[in-house]
Design brief:
The radius of gyration is 46 Å and the shape is rod-shaped. The chain has four domains: 6-131, no CATH class; 137-193, no CATH class; 200-309, Immunoglobulin-like; 323-362, no CATH class. It has 365 residues and is α+β, with helices and mostly antiparallel strands. It contains twelve helices and eleven strands. The longest helix has 13 residues, at 6-18. Strands 2, 4, 5, 6, 8 and 9 form a six-stranded mixed sheet that branches. Helices cover 28% and strands 20% of the residues.
């Protein structure tokens, strides 16, 4: 009659006592004792090792972790310097116990201890192909639909954007290009950035506050710029005046160096001119130029005949100094009733007199 090994006798006695009340293997893992030595109690303190060993030998978790359990652990458990990681690759059969990626190795050996106890065979490699991301097929870019929105398929249709996003979140190429992938694309990909249409002048909204001016006057030009894009712009606006028939250019000192235009808004701005003295009288073209304050790119430019600068003494605004203007001056001779509303007071002393007459005669014609 053969001798029954003592550890199995002990196991039979324990099982006879606990019967159906015996705890499942998982309930003993992890436990308090070490895995690499006999610890005298069921289970051991490393979850992966405990599950691997007990799946191969339930005695180690049902009764106690003895020297045989420790021996199995020392040949199969990474915590004991064996099994995981091994030396061979995980994604194909390598003929040695375990494989070189500790996470994949433990994941496969938890369900199939043979892979770490004996050899990493074709079945182990097949299981790694299902469980381990290192064995998944590489992302395929481009593929699928629009990169900038949920497209219901793996990957997206722009190769560069697809690669950028999948480098951050491989799920987008391996499984599904979902809203998180689209949100990542919005941050990383130029193709998902808003299209910023250049702002444009609204010429009908441009006007010279004073349509006529004299030497020494200050003239304000008000203009509108329509921003039809969804982006804000910082812009520079240059404004100059030149006689219609040719002559010196009068530049505008900027009322503000940089202007900001809000998205989808029409914004009014102003430019101020100090009319020099002396000045060439007649009609003036006002030229506007708008450019990007950051890049210097010119968005738009146009010229409009908006202003007439009068000769001193042209009191009726007909472009000539003649007998009609002289009669107006003589009619206002003497102290001005209103200093701010006295057209014939050409020298600005609040009185129409001989000096004003001499100025008019100097500009006769």
């Amino acid at each position: 009659m053969s001798k029954v090994p003592s550890r199995w006798v002990l196991a039979a006695l324990v099982l006879a006592i606990v019967g159906v009340f015996a705890e499942p293997i998982q309930a003993q893992c992890p436990a308090s004792g070490g895995c690499c030595v006999a610890n005298g109690s069921p289970g051991c303190d490393d979850l992966v090792c405990c599950l691997n060993v007990c799946a191969n030998d339930p005695f180690c978790c049902d009764v106690q972790w003895d020297s045989l359990c420790a021996s199995i652990a020392n040949t199969s458990c990474g915590v004991c310097g064996a099994g995981c990681p091994g030396t061979g690759g995980c994604c194909s059969a390598n003929a040695t116990p375990g494989c070189d990626n500790p996470f994949c190795c433990s994941l496969v050996c938890t369900g199939n201890p043979f892979c770490c106890l004996t050899a990493w065979d074709a079945l182990c490699a097949q299981q790694a192909g299902v469980l381990c991301t290192i064995c998944f097929p590489p992302p395929t870019c481009p593929g699928g639909g629009d990169c900038c929105q949920y497209n219901g398929s793996p990957a997206c249709d722009d190769a560069t954007c697809c690669q950028l996003v999948c480098a951050v979140d491989e799920f987008c190429c391996l499984s599904l290009w979902d809203n998180i992938c689209a949100s990542t694309a919005a941050e990383l990909c130029d193709i998902c950035q808003p299209v910023c249409a250049n702002p444009q002048f609204v010429e009908t909204g441009t006007r010279v506050v004073r349509e006529q001016a004299l030497a020494g006057d200050t003239v304000t030009v008000v203009y509108e710029v329509a921003n039809t894009s969804v982006c804000s712009f910082l812009m520079l606006v240059d404004c100059t005046m030149r006689p219609v028939g040719g002559g010196p250019v009068i530049a505008s000192p900027r009322c503000a160096v940089v202007e900001s235009i809000d998205p989808l808004a029409v914004t009014a701005f102003a430019r101020c001119f100090n009319v020099p003295s002396p000045v060439v009288p007649g009609g003036y073209d006002v030229t506007y130029e708008i450019s990007d304050a950051v890049t210097g790119e010119i968005f738009d430019t146009f010229t409009s005949p908006d202003l007439t600068i009068l000769s001193e003494g042209d009191l009726n605004g007909d472009g000539a100094v003649d007998i009609v203007d002289l009669l107006v001056l003589l009619a206002q001779w003497g102290p001005c009733a209103e200093c701010t509303d006295c057209p014939a007071d050409l020298d600005g002393n609040c009185e129409v007199g001989i000096t004003d007459l001499l100025i008019m005669l100097a500009n006769w014609g």
